[in-house]
Amino acid sequence: MGTVVGNVWATRKEDDLSGLKFLFIQPERPDGSSVEPPFIAVDRIGAGFGDKVIVTRGSAAANMTGLTKLPIDALVVGIIDSIDVEKKEVNGRG
Amino acid sequence: MGTVVGNVWATRKEDDLSGLKFLFIQPERPDGSSVEPPFIAVDRIGAGFGDKVIVTRGSAAANMTGLTKLPIDALVVGIIDSIDVEKKEVNGRG
Amino acid sequence: MGTVVGNVWATRKEDDLSGLKFLFIQPERPDGSSVEPPFIAVDRIGAGFGDKVIVTRGSAAANMTGLTKLPIDALVVGIIDSIDVEKKEVNGRG
Amino acid sequence: MGTVVGNVWATRKEDDLSGLKFLFIQPERPDGSSVEPPFIAVDRIGAGFGDKVIVTRGSAAANMTGLTKLPIDALVVGIIDSIDVEKKEVNGRG
Amino acid sequence: MGTVVGNVWATRKEDDLSGLKFLFIQPERPDGSSVEPPFIAVDRIGAGFGDKVIVTRGSAAANMTGLTKLPIDALVVGIIDSIDVEKKEVNGRG
Known about the structure:
Five copies of one chain form a homopentamer.
Chain A: E1 2-9, E2 12-13, E3 21-27, E4 39-43, E5 52-57, E6 74-79, E7 82-85
Antiparallel strand pairs in A: 1-3, 1-5, 3-4, 5-6
């Protein structure tokens, strides 16, 4: 889970990646606090600045329908409507 | 290993993911203490809030029978009945 | 590298995983000190409690002969007879 | 995202990798501060010392057009022209 | 990048892995300082104790020519002749 915090433009790219949109995502806990540094993800479903999104990371990100396997390792797969999480981390460092 | 701590709803998604259920999982040690921040996983076997589950992470999560490879990186693959672990971490930071 | 520290039982599982054995593995340095929290791995070669084992993690764990790709991310691939390591970590945090 | 900080030469290699260029990449946040230690990546699009680049890590790096899957886990896929990121991490450790 | 610091022997293994050599690798920064604990990698190009090597980690390690995909997650792919890295980490924790 993360929030869209920026855009990235890169004219010189691996051929297959032309036409794809790159976003900066800030990974977060359910309460919105940041977890790790921002990373770059591909987006095809129109996520915009400030959206809470579900991101698939690692090579599974390349399992996008209709496209040969692309050399990408992060893909926005959902724009979150709502979440409900019960506080369980009382004793944990999580 | 982790515990189901919440649900996530996202109407706008990558086409292949419609109909799948998304859960928040809190990763844990065998003694129940939290390990890392919660993450989002797909569930097809009916895990519910508070269940202890086995989760496959990374692109292997996409190896689900009967489906073309989906862009998902975490899948609930088992609901734990019981575990038995012998305390070995006396000297370790683990 | 790690040590088998426990067992996990889960009746409700993804269909393909029935019949497989799940073990708790404590990842370690060569000197036996713990590295990260324990994780769950599949075992087919008969590792038992206290065995030092080689574990393949990530989606490569699904490259098991004779089986379609399973949704597993950790597989015991060897039971260690012996190791020889020369102390090099004098200056490192490793 | 990272910056090219050096070169690596290795004559004895796995057969398929001969002819490929290896670079040292320093991974960074959008503000240029370093994130983790430098790592080695393959480059085919002519990135040079000091260039800001987009790097695909993990097995997706092997999804390079026109080549059988190579045993590489990091590939430079873009040379960044510009980025714009809005400061959001006021409360986070990110 | 890392240095070969030891050997591992394991007679009882997954069938496909017999005949392969297992080495302990200490992952390092370009300046030789240790980064994480040592891990086990497969070697086919004859790396020996003390050699500086390039290691592919994760499932891409299984992309070895002439072999069906093996359940391995780390492969020595190059023995380093030389590197040149310019100090850039003045402000970073990297």
